[in-house]
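Let's sit down with a protein and look at its sequence and fold side by side. Which protein we use is up to you, so please pick one and set it down. Label the sequence line and the structure token line clearly, so we can match residues to local backbone shapes. Go ahead whenever you are ready, and we will take it from there:

***
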Amino acid sequence: MKEYNLTAKMRAYKWDELTDEQRAVLTVAKEQVERSYCPYSHFHVGAGLLLENGEIIRGCNQENAAYPSGLCAERTALFAAGAQYPEVPVKKLAIACFTGGHFTKEPGAPCGGCRQVMLESEHRYGAKMEVLLYGEEETYVFESAADLLPLTFVKENLIG
């Protein structure tokens, strides 16, 4: 038997420690929670993407009475970016969660499906995206989506 330890590098910042660029994309994510459609969970999630060309793409979660038919904020933003700017890598992805009348104290993390889509985006463009998870007390910053999903499944895995 072999045993492996998987590690991920994450930094935690206070708002005033973030760069102007990081705060800008996080502000978009925070604004997007107001556009969220979540009549069932009442858990609003907003996403902001900064593309390499400087464009900012917005996303928010969209629920549906047939639960599997809804979509997370991260994926709405990533799929919109892919449709509008198919050749432009994502530079930064920011996520903010809002429930009970306020932003979450601790940062919310993307679901497994979103992590896979984020990873696919990095592989698609051959470029890392910085991931920012907003919380009222601090923001977690990951250098790459791969840090959130260390055992990756990418197109190379499909080749036998």
Remarks:
- Residues 10-158 form a domain with the Cytidine Deaminase; domain 2 fold (CATH 3.40.140.10).
- The CA atoms of residues 3 and 151 lie 14 Å apart.
- The longest helix spans residues 112-125.
